[in-house]
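Dear colleague,

As promised, here are the two records you asked about, laid out in our usual form so they can be pasted straight into your sheet.

NAME FIELD: protein one
SEQUENCE, THEN STRUCTURE:
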Amino acid sequence: MEQEFRPIFDNYEASRDGIIRNRRLKKPVGYINNMGYMQFGVGKKKYLCHRAVYEAFHGPIEDDLVIDHIDSNTLNNHLSNLQAISHGENNKRGRTGKCSKRPRPIVSFDITTNEKRVFQSINAAGKHFDIHPSSVQKVAEGIYQTARSKKSGNRIKFSYSQ
């Protein structure tokens, strides 16, 4: 069955499956940005794919709303996985996709020393190794493989504790 594409810019269109493509060439466009979201460029301006898909099928997004990935997978831009929610609700959900006020425990593994540690939060792990919390989070979510500790110079792997 042929996918339905809707125009979003002069030369681009979006499908319900979350694909952005060049209308003339019929080729998908986009790349994963440093925050783990699919993004594409039109001239010098950059656009997030999930927002473009949502707007193509639901119209303009109100200023007080953000587009949330229901399953917390920032690469799943299927229309059924996108919802418009308030900034406050999005902050409550965080990256877990659930309303949670507690930080998630995280496990570190030092590749050089084979030392394993458990921390109560991303921030605590980042502070211990002198690694920015966003890098710790990206390793835990599989966006990066490791992060280098500024404290020891060692490469560290992170994963969420079960």
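NAME FIELD: protein two
SEQUENCE, THEN STRUCTURE:
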Amino acid sequence: MRIFFEKINEKDRGFTLVETLVATSILSVAILSMLVVLSKNITNTNYAKRKIIASYLAQEGVEYLRNMRDTYVLYNATSSQVGWDAFKTNLTDVGSDCQDTVNGCYVGDLAAGAYTNPSQPMINIPVPACGASCPTMSYDSSTGKYGYVGASSGFIRKIWITRPSLNEVKVFSRVSWTQGTLNYNMVFSESLYNWVE
């Protein structure tokens, strides 16, 4: 009986089952790692987008009250002091009471044709009290504006004021939102003064 031994050329060797499993495992780990990184990047991008929108909405809340102050002070026929006092009264009325730091108030929408005095439209913007909770802002895709008409945006804006002195009103505007399981908020503040003598 003859036994033939063939010399196996190194070039002709194939992968063994173990080598195939190891290579497949390494490839799977690499692909899963890339998917995790991509998923995290998408989440971070969405967070950055919502944070930018929240910062604009918070600044807008301050701007509404600044424009309201300017309208009251500049367009009051009697005097700037009477306009300043009317501005402060509008924010502290029973219906709005923006001085309530717990509940606060919000800048409401003004329906078309609701201007009672077209030369001073900012005076007529409602500033209702939030009560237990401020309403969720909406996004109107036809106009590209945030307000309280349209699809829910998930953002809640609360405005409140403090009055450090007779001629100063400090305005706070907080926008909060939930993303995933986390809650976020952004607060802007600015001091408004009775700057016309």
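A couple of things worth noting about protein two: Strands lie at 136-140, 145-147, 151-165, 168-179, 182-193. Residues 84 and 191 are 14 Å apart (CA to CA).

Best,
R.
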